[in-house]
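User:
I would dearly like some help making sense of a protein record. Take your time, and here it is.
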Amino acid sequence: MRDIDSKSMIIGVLGTLLIFACMGATENMGDITVNSIKVLNDGTGGFIEIMNGDGKRIAFVGVNDGQDGGTVKTYNGSGFETSFIGTMDDNQYGGMMINNSEGLANISIGVDTSGNGFMETYDNQLNMNIFIGAGGDGHGYLSTYNSEDIRTAYLGTSISGNGMISTLAKDGDLTTYLGMGEESGGGQLSTYNSDGKETSYLGTAKNGTGIIQTSNGDGKATAYLGTSENDAGMISVMNPDDDSRVFIGKDYIRTYNKDGKATAYLGTSENNIGMISVMNPDDDSRVFIGKDYIRTYNGDGKETVFLGTGESGIGFLQTNNKLGERVGYFGSGKKQNGMAALYDRYGDLGWVEDGMQ
């Protein structure tokens, strides 16, 4: 059987209606049956039916069943309605429906009760899988749904009027968000776990700089990559259960214990020389490694050991008592000979031995 082009059919039907309308202006023709076309009036309004070669209805133009609005419907050879264009029976707005071979809706286009246009698509179980339209706030969006009629993705406008994309798990829990940050005012990409806790953030910080942040399963921050207060790059790795962390800045690395007190520093000193400092956070004791020396300090901040090169370019080892007074020296003397010296607790020389033969 020859296929019927729906566009041509509708044009032909409308043309026929125009001819009949013109004729009806001067004469009431009543019901008409011409081969495969019927023009009838059943008491509720006129309609046109078109039949195929087997006498089965394949198109209908008239008043929707039990309604006041007009419709155009098409049918397949099995008698199932395959398309509908006309006035919807629930809100008096125009609409369109495209159905499958069993007459079940696959695509619906229309206007909701708020006057907003929309389009919906359905699977073969009549579960909606795509919606394109506007929400109650008038913002446009596109949503996808799984076979359980649970939303799985959203592309559209947020409550604040900014564009956004979000994906959701099969149970409807948010998994990713791409859009505008409400606090920062900049773009962001966030991921979430099954408990709804944010696990990663890529976007703009409150100060307007870019950041990357990761969090544990409870939503507590574990790592941060971004810009410091002095506009230099930084990395911070944290223990979310206390204040211990490792901080990498512009030209240094610093570590902190669980109380947030510094324990080690590797970087550049104020005079632009590399240095390492290992500290006891509970007092002033520490080990300090500079350009050409090592120094140790006790809990009172007094220097106890020096190993390195002095101002005269001589290498030596010096030990001090807890008051910081020199008590021992091993190194080079004024004549470049090896020497050892011992001092009393007040720093006065008590014994010396020169290496010269």
